[in-house]
What we know:
Chain A is mainly β. Chain A is 0% helix and 59% strand. Chain B is built from no helices and 11 strands. In chain B, the strands form 2 sheets. In chain B, strands 2, 4, 5, 9, 10 and 11 form a 6-stranded mixed beta sheet that branches. In chain B, strands 1-3-8-7-6 form a 5-stranded antiparallel beta sheet, with no helix packed on it. In chain B, strand 9 and strand 10 form a beta hairpin.
Amino acid sequence: xxxxxxxxxxxxxxxxxxxxxxxxxxxxxxxxxxxxxxxxxxxxxxxxxxxxxxxxxxxxxxxxxxxxxxxxxxxxxxxxxxxxxxxxxxxxxxxxxxxxxxxxxxxxxxx
Amino acid sequence: xxxxxxxxxxxxxxxxxxxxxxxxxxxxxxxxxxxxxxxxxxxxxxxxxxxxxxxxxxxxxxxxxxxxxxxxxxxxxxxxxxxxxxxxxxxxxxxxxxxxxxxxxxxxxxxx
Lengths: 111, 112
């Protein structure tokens, strides 16, 4: 069966520091991969999605970037974090154009 | 602005009662999905209804879709305390590839 992992689960970082969040999927090949951000008590904002290795589409211009170095690995990065980057980051995968399966999320607090 | 908007934003009911949540969207869709999120956790897919379907059932869940009104509803019958969570609708818009657009969610509290 397929599983999706995210780490770390929680992260506290100072403003201006770099960021790297990792997401990996097991048990499937060539998944569509997604990064979302969720502000407290709000809905999900799509940040990036990828349909294959090295293929990244950005939905929101900001100081974040994403990379897909391997088929089942999706990384969210920043060179310099802002206070507004705080939030709950969710990675998801999809085998097709329908259902998405979410990871457990990473709670990021930027101080 | 968001494609999907849930209504109400928050709902509090007693165990055993039914809970109804609504979702409205703006553009034509390929399908509409409902997800559930427990506090601080990832989202879990509940049910998908396609644009050519009007009603779908899954256990205690009933979803309707009215494409003429661009709206959907999620009914949870005989609610339980364990149903307490946030519920989100998500739409896959025609010609938008693999992307889903999520609404702001309805926070449901079921009191024992």
